[in-house]
């Protein structure tokens, strides 16, 4: 990928992360109540990952035509407000390449000798939901701890619950 980061103005490419042993790609946005519910926990997980050398990137693919609150300017403000230490990138179509359908949705890739990165986890952060009364535990996030037991999570898909990605009308 080659996507812009609204906060810094830098364009990030997959090659920028090739030295990392793993890469967590999170499809998030500003307005989704499921993401809002997890923003502080996402920032904390990203901090823990970066201390282990794992690269983290957030991507918003929501259309600014239908959801201007998810646009680049507001993304930069959110990144500052929540202290995101990861690039929070914008692209209205990129999620389709991953097969992502909602926010929040997590993809963890490990470094692979055959490929740049290999998918080892696709799913949710945990079982908490807004107004559910369930605490934010990061239970599924803790499954993503690095180093991780690849055999335990390979080809896993945990039910993803959230807001559908708001595709550009065209």
From TrEMBL:
Family label: Belongs to the peroxiredoxin family. Prx5 subfamily.
Species assigned in the record: Selaginella moellendorffii (Spikemoss)
Lineage: superkingdom: Eukaryota
PROSITE patterns: THIOREDOXIN_2 (PS51352)
EC numbers for this chain: 1.11.1.25
Gene3D superfamilies associated with the record: Glutaredoxin
Molecular function (Gene Ontology), one example: oxidoreductase activity
Pfam families: Redoxin (PF08534)
Name of this protein: glutaredoxin-dependent peroxiredoxin
Reactions performed catalytically: [glutaredoxin]-dithiol + a hydroperoxide = [glutaredoxin]-disulfide + an alcohol + H2O
Domain annotation Thioredoxin: ranges: 1-145
